[in-house]
Amino acid sequence: MRFYDTLQREVLDFKPIEEGHVGMYTCGPTVYRPAHIGNLRTYITADLLRRVLEFEGAEVKQITNITDVGHMTDEVADAGEDRMMLAVEDEGLAPDEIAHKYTEAFLEGLDALNIQRSALYPKATDHIHEMIEVAQKLIERSHAYVAGGNVYYDVDSFPSYGRLSHNTIDSLQSAHRIENDPLKRNSYDFLLWRVAGEGRVMKWQSPWGDGYPGWHIECSAMSIRYLGEQFDIHTGGSDNVFPHHEDEIAQSEGATGHQVVMRWLHGHHLLAEGRRMAKSAQNFYTVTDLIERGFDPLAFRYLVMQTRYRSQMNFTWDAMQSAHRGLENLRKHMTEWVSESMQDGELSAAAMDLDRRFAQSVTDDLDLPAALVVVSEVASADIPTEEKFSLVERWDRVLGLDLARDVVALEELPAAIAEKIAERERARESGDWKTADRLRDELQRDGVELTDTASGPRWSLRR
Ligand code: AMP
Ligand code: ZN
For atom 8 of ligand 1, which residue has the closest CA? Predict the structure, then answer.
């Protein structure tokens, strides 16, 4: 497996710290609004990475955090309002009710897209203690300072700051020029802990008084807590590179004194009408919107895989429509290729070649577009149909498209339907086309789609 590392800026072969085991941290959602399909594109990318590693035989421990405090509306200036509090004001619910509501909705979205569940979804508000500990360690090691009940990271104390995002101190200075926090030593210092303002409900006790954590510190605290002081892969969307991950590196390395994350993988954005899809820009769609328009959510997964994760991708309903049709078509092929006499024997040379090309594509920096070309070649390949079926069924462990979903074994069909199919076969054999056609129409009304193939009838169930 090889993939592009944001830090080293090249595609590199990947070897886990411990052979056969991969620790992977995925930046999770801020649970103040429904996750949109842009967010989900990033989680599909992380899921594909995990599935490819598992396809290659590794065991992956994936941790995805839930941000339920401290993510401000202005990420770069670290200012504005806590997003959770925006939702509290809008909806009149308590912060933990908002978090619960949108965490559940997020998990349902993952399930609808066949994104495998992480081992754990730790919540920021359950790890305040760990965050305070990281902040204390940073103060002890002279990477942070206290001023007016706030704790700031002293960016000048960490010379390699900017390595991930390639931001220079000059550019940071100008980005922060407008904001004026007299407690900071330098305008580009960022908050680890913030004093609770008058009337704030979400606050905790700390050595520096009542307050709440900054956004970045949660990911340092929880990644180290669950994956250890050195782990293999950290994923996120490209907007996380700065400031979120730049600051996470400064914190985690400042606190431990060594490299913590070995590889960084970032997925690029989903756009709508040419602009980044965003909760705050209101140009977003959710999985529920897809379903309401009659689409299979997995058609969105299929659509996402048609663009490499390192390119931006523009979402349109037309593209969604063709992805939906394409997916239906693949599933229909599967119902035609399945055979009652499937055997686990050796594959033919031509099938092995397709298999090799598929594996090569997905392990080459997640080249799913190339892998899908191989999938599309299967239909016209000169190999037995049962090989077509078993190749695609195996590849679906990576693709996650439920491609064999419509394949129903004869014995799983309701008895009345199985009997009608058999009756139609008898009618066809005796040349009684009229009866055969009538039975086919009846079956269609029952939701059964029939295709006649050289090796007998194939059927799929409409859902
Ligand atoms: P948030 O809930 O805002 O913390 O974002 C959750 C994840 O979605 C983060 O990893 C973001 O980088 C990612 N993300 C946000 N907007 C988009 C987008 N338009 N396309 C792809 N990923 C996104
Ligand atoms: Zn994070």
Answer: 39
